[in-house]
């Protein structure tokens, strides 16, 4: 029972950094990137990191699947943010729909999520000699590149709109 509770609590983003640091230190201290699984604390940490990696795995999947789930998760986050606003509570970071009014803001949030949270966790997990993360890492890179293209296109369209507005004003 305690292990199951600890596994669920390990999916909380509040412990992401702590578990990632502990995990990286454990890997660095091991021989050949093969931590001693007979140690209960070691096996528990590996299980916690594995479950957390699965919990935040949407960006590590093919774009068509990933974007559908991103929209579903963001809808849930925004609903929570709306409730926080109604209750006069501080709105959780990334949960305020009023701060995500265009695709560039959505892309920025996802690029942060991938680059700062998901990718470093997967890179650390991939250091285990018995874990193959080639496919998830491929999708992380592809999805990050896709978001960057979306931002570039958005910026180009904004510049074009500004140029057209200036041209209209000049006439």
Tell me the fraction of residues in β-strands, as a range: under 5%
The SSE string, one letter per element, is HHHHHH
| Individual helix count | 6
Percent of residues in helices comes to: over 70%
Oligomeric composition of the shown chains: single chain
Overall structural class, as computed from helix and strand content, comes to mainly alpha
Give a structural overview:
This protein is mainly alpha-helical and 171 residues long. The protein has six helices and no strands. The chain has helices at 2-9, 16-29, 40-55, 63-86, 103-125, 134-170. Helix 2 (16-29) packs across helix 3 (40-55), helix 2 (16-29) packs parallel to helix 5 (103-125) and helix 5 runs antiparallel to helix 6. The radius of gyration is 20 Å and the shape is elongated. The mean pLDDT is 92.
Features:
single chain; 171 residues; mainly alpha; elongated
Short description:
71% of the residues lie in helices and 0% in strands. With 171 residues, it is mainly α. 15% of the residues are buried.
Topology:
Elements: H1 2-9, H2 16-29, H3 40-55, H4 63-86, H5 103-125, H6 134-170
Helix pairs in contact: 1-3, 2-3, 2-5, 5-6
